[in-house]
C-alpha cells in the first residue's frame, strides 16, 4: 500500500478550509427566514467533489456525497462502537482464521438489482488485487472473500486478526459489481455519470463549483429519509458559509468550524452547535533515530516543557480535551486507560532530565503545516514554553506538500501534526508505532512494543485486546514515542430550524453521515 494514500485519509482530513475567520454579519436577519421545509436540506461545503469513485476518493466532500450513495457494512455510534448498516451481524471463527458477515436482504441498487454478498466480495477483492486506497493497508490479513449466500460473506484470513472486521466494516464502501466490473481498472474508473447507487439519497444533478443535488430514495432499507432532497452548496471559505447560514441560504455547515468562529457563534440564537469528538489527536513526535532524541530522558524533558492546558484553552478556545498523554483517547471509552496521567508542565524537571542526559544548549527544529490554523496557533506556544526549560525550538512552517514529504522521509527533529481518524487502536498503533509501520514518522523500533501490538491485533475481542494495547499505550507514553497534546472537540453548525441529526465522532462523519441525514427533519 502507498504510504501517501494512507496519510491523506488519516491526516489530511483534519485540515480546516481556512484560517480562523471572524464571524461576518449579524443574526438580526434570522427572524425573517421562512420555516424549514422537509422538501430540502442544504449543506455548505468548501470544496467540489473530486472523485465519484468511493473506493478511491477520500476528500471530505467526496466522502460526504459518496457515503450517501454507497453503503458501508457498518456505521459508528458516538462512543466509536460499530453499529449495523448493510451488515446486521458479524463474528470471527473460533480459531480466528475466518470471519463471517450477514447482510440485510432489503437494500437495492438504484437500477433495481439487489445489493448482495457478490457486491461485497467484488469490492473488497478488487481493493486487495489492485492494492489501492486506505482499505488495502488495513486488510493485509485477507486471503479470500467468498459469497456463501446472497446475504452472507465469509472472509478467509491468513492469520488471526481481530482488527479485520472493524476495519473492513468501517472503511470499505460497497459498490455495484455489475457496474464497476466493466471497468478495465476499478482504480482508474471515474464513475462520473449514470450513477448506480444504494444509499438514502441518489445523486441527480451536478453543477461544479455550485451545487450537488441528491434526491430521497423511498423504501431505503435502514429507514426512508424524512427530507426529499439534500443539496451540497460550494462556498469559497468558512466566512461565506457562516453568512449563508445566518441568512437562511443553507441549513448546515458541513465542515468543522475553526475554534474562534465556534466561540463567536455559540451565543447566536439562530444557530445550534453540535459538538463532535475527534477520533484522532494532535501531537508532537520526536525523531528517535536522531541524537540526542534517541535518549528517552531528552524526550521526557521535551514532554515536560509543553504547557498543555494553555494550548487547549488559548489556541483551541477550550474546544479540546486532555488525553492524559495517552494514545488511547476519551473518544473511544471502551479502550481508555484510567491510570493514564498527563505529563506535567515542569520546566525545572526538564532541566534536570537534560542534565542527567548530559545535554546542554539543546536546539531543535520543529516542522508543521503552515496552512493548519490550529497548529499555526499553538506551534509558537510550544516554542515559548520550551524556552523556560532552556530549550531552543526553531519553527519551520511548511507548505503542505513539503511538510508531507519531510514527514514521510523522517526529515525532522520534531513533527507537529494531528491524526484525523484513529478508530481501531490495535490496528492504528501498528501503523504508527510498529517497526516499519506505514505512518511511523518517528522511526520507533521497539521489540517489546511490537510484541504487545501483535498480541492485541491477534485478539478477537476488545476484552482480550485491551490489556496488551493498554500496556502498549503506556509504553508509548513512558518512552515518549508520541506526545499527545489534546483531542479536539469539533463544532458543526446548523440552523435551529432543523433537528433529528445523529452525530457520530470525527469530522468525516459528524452529522453529515447517512443515518444522520436520513433522520434530519424540520424542528417542531
From TrEMBL:
Keywords: Signal. Residues 83-433 form the Solute-binding protein family domain. One of its GO terms (cellular component) is periplasmic space. GO terms for molecular function: peptide transmembrane transporter activity. GO terms for biological process: peptide transport. Pfam families: SBP_bac_5. Residues 1-20 form the signal peptide. This is ABC transporter substrate-binding protein. It is a lipid-anchor. The keyword Signal applies. Gene3D superfamilies: Dipeptide-binding Protein, Domain 1 (3.90.76.10), Dipeptide-binding Protein, Domain 3 (3.10.105.10), Periplasmic binding protein-like II (3.40.190.10). It comes from the Bacteria. The keyword Signal applies. It is found in: Cell membrane. Belongs to the bacterial solute-binding protein 5 family.
